[in-house]
């Protein structure tokens, strides 16, 4: 049951009316309904995963209370929490990866040990709810928050269905208080949520899914295509992953607004960034801020005696973890490591924290701003080739084909109509986002005074979704992470 499916639409409409019309008089009943809805939603993926989610919730609920109450053993309890959280993540997501890497290492040394892989199903969303529980325990240990004594509230924090499968990763200090406070239906917030859902669905079904058709064709046959086609494939995939993931985040945030919640913003127009540090401040914001607080900052403190080199090392380690977080493949490790390395020039120049507001009080950016955007986007696009490839060798073969004489030839594309349509909608998306770059999302047009004009825009987007969506409803990319 994915957001862009009929089954989810039926589920959420029923849930919405129960939430606001049958359970609205009691906060406890509303929270119980959210928990029931979240567990139903998650069980649709695989009911066995629900047992794991429930076990994780019970263990961390008890640990949180014990850490708060214990003075003598709180550090030991925190480490137990870290071990169970990371241990579960390592087992389900990385166990076979370690086995394969171990076998490959010994095979390179001409020793065939052939350790057998284990048939493991990776629970959907495990990376997201694991990070939520780790952050919760860490915040209690550091006395930033108090442990919640209400199991329904805590279980909802872990399993809140709009954000369960692919984030955003809300911190306990911002989300739990919203669960503990009575929620009143607000028309303006709900209308804003509907607009954001519409924008997210448009990005996912019209842009991401159409880009996917062409990008998958090119990446699947890259050895037989000219460099110009590979350039088109790399560009469309970089747009696909943005439209897909930010589209999911928009839908999740919009659904949350319909239920009276304000969820962490996850994207801030990252393809308008002027350097790699700014890009990561605007891309998957909830993950970046989580890792900054719980990984980079402790590392940076540990390496502070080494000056800027210590900062650089902390950043490289942090972004290597970003890469590993995405999945059990050396391509993700390399992707994160390369991004970390590209921070080093900014660290050396001491401009890593410099924030530049693009085209301030102007419609068009300056020539320097355009150049910086193009350089940053080109780098990101090229690294997404590593991210998309099945292995590192294939990625370098793709680069070899891309940077060849055939780069200047005419591209060969099987689905030309879809490619042209995709490029047209990509231009429209970026044009809208550029005009609305001061807003939370592209379709936040509540400041437009003429209601007829607003309704016309909504109708155009709905028509595009109906007539120009890809034939199949594809799963969101980040579900597998």
Tell me what you see in this structure.
The protein has 481 residues and is mainly alpha-helical. It has 2 domains: 6-183, no CATH class; 188-274 and 356-480, no CATH class. Helix content is 68%, strand content 0%. It has helices at residues 6-22, 27-43, 47-69, 74-108, 126-141, 151-159, 161-164, 172-180, 187-220, 227-258, 276-282, 285-302, 307-326, 330-341, 344-348, 367-388, 392-402, 416-435, 451-468. Helix 3 runs parallel beside helix 5 and helix 9 (187-220) packs parallel to helix 19. The radius of gyration is 23 Å and the shape is globular. It starts with 5 loop residues before the first helix and ends in a 13-residue tail after the last helix. The model has no long low-confidence stretch (mean pLDDT 90).
Can you summarize this structure?
The protein is mainly α.
Helix fraction, binned, reads: 55-70%
Number of domains: 2
**How many distinct beta strands?**
0
Compute the number of helices: 19
Largest sheet: none
Tell me, what's the shape? globular
SSE succession: HHHHHHHHHHHHHHHHHHH
Estimate the mean pLDDT confidence: 90
Q: What are the low-pLDDT stretches, counting only 5+ consecutive residues below 50?
A: none
Strand content is under 5%
The structural class is mainly alpha
- Backbone CA Rg: 23 Å
Distance between the terminal alpha carbons, to the nearest Å? Answer: 17 Å
């Amino acid at each position: 049951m994915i957001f862009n499916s009929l089954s989810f639409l039926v589920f959420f409409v029923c849930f919405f009316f129960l939430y606001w019309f049958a359970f609205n008089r009691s906060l406890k009943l509303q929270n119980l309904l959210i928990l029931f809805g979240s567990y139903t939603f998650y069980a649709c993926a695989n009911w066995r995963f629900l047992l794991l989610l429930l076990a994780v919730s019970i263990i961390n609920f008890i640990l949180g209370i014990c850490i708060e109450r214990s003075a003598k053993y709180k550090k030991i309890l925190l480490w137990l929490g870290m071990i169970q959280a990371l241990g579960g993540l390592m087992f389900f997501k990385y166990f076979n990866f370690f086995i394969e890497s171990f076998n490959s290492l010994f095979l390179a040394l001409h020793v065939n040990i052939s350790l057998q892989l284990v048939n493991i199903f990776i629970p959907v969303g495990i990376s997201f709810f694991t990070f939520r529980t780790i952050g919760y325990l860490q915040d209690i240990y550091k006395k930033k928050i108090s442990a919640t004594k209400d199991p329904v509230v805590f279980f909802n924090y872990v399993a809140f269905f709009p954000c369960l499968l692919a984030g955003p990763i809300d911190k306990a200090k911002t989300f739990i208080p919203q669960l503990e406070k009575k929620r009143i239906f607000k028309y303006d917030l709900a209308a804003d949520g509907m607009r954001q859902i519409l924008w997210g669905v448009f990005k996912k079904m019209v842009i991401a899914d159409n880009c996917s058709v062409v990008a998958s064709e090119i990446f699947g046959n890259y050895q037989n295509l000219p460099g110009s086609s590979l350039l088109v494939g790399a560009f469309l995939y970089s747009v696909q992953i943005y439209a897909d993931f930010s589209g999911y985040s928009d839908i999740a945030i919009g659904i949350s607004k319909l239920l009276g919640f304000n969820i962490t913003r996850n994207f801030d127009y990252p393809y308008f960034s002027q350097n790699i540090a700014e890009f990561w401040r605007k891309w998957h914001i909830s993950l970046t801020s989580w890792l900054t607080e719980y990984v980079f900052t402790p590392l940076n403190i540990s390496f502070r005696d080494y000056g800027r080199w210590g900062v650089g090392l902390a950043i490289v380690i942090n972004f290597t973890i970003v890469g590993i977080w995405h999945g059990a493949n050396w391509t993700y490790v390399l992707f994160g490591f390369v991004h970390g390395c590209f921070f080093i020039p900014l660290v050396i120049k001491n401009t890593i924290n410099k924030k530049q507001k693009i085209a301030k009080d102007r419609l068009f950016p300056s020539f320097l701003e355009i150049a910086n955007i193009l350089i940053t986007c080109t780098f990101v696009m090229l690294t997404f080739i590593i991210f998309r490839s099945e292995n590192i060798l294939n990625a370098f073969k793709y680069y070899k084909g891309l940077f060849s004489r055939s780069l200047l030839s005419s591209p060969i594309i099987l689905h030309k109509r879809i490619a042209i349509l995709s490029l047209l909608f990509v231009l429209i998306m970026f044009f809208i986002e550029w005009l609305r770059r001061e807003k939370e999302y592209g379709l936040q047009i509540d400041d437009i005074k003429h209601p007829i004009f607003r309704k016309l825009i909504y109708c155009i987007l709905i028509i595009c979704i109906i007539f120009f969506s890809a034939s199949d409803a594809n799963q969101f990319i980040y579900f597998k992470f």
